[in-house]
């Protein structure tokens, strides 16, 4: 969670004290918001925190896809496997699979 009293700094201050800010981010896990001319302009965070954020986004996107699929199934928007396979093979110029 961002702490506005400790995690917002000017870009100039960040440049002067980069190593201190890197240690602060590693210790807290919080990103820093850097300002330019008093306005938020850049967010900086350590690699581990960024990776955790990306992992969470990927998980949420997967869950959203599953929910869409379940909603389609509930609405009857499905294609039987044999029909899908036939259409897929035709579309991609693949020969029929021997069984």
Proportion of beta-strand residues? 5-15%
Low-pLDDT residue spans: none
How do the SSEs run, as a string of H and E?
EHHEEHH
Q: How many helices? A: 4
**What's the story with the biggest beta sheet?**
3 strands, mixed
Assign an overall shape: elongated
Radius of gyration: 24 Å
* pLDDT averaged over residues: 92
Trace the largest sheet across and list its strands.
Answer: 1-2-3
Q: Estimate percent helicity.
A: 55-70%
CA-CA gap between termini: 56 Å
Structural class: alpha+beta
Number of strands: 3
Tally of individual domains: 2
Break the fold down into its secondary structure elements and pairings.
Blueprint: E1 8-10, H1 11-16, H2 18-28, E2 32-36, E3 39-44, H3 47-74, H4 81-91
Parallel strand pairs: 1-2
Antiparallel strand pairs: 2-3
Description:
The protein folds into two domains: 38 residues; 43 residues, no CATH class. Strands 1-2-3 form a three-stranded mixed beta sheet. The N and C termini lie far apart (56 Å). The longest helix has 28 residues. It contains four helices and three strands. With 99 residues, the chain is an alpha+beta fold. Strand 2 and strand 3 form a beta hairpin. The relative contact order is 0.09.
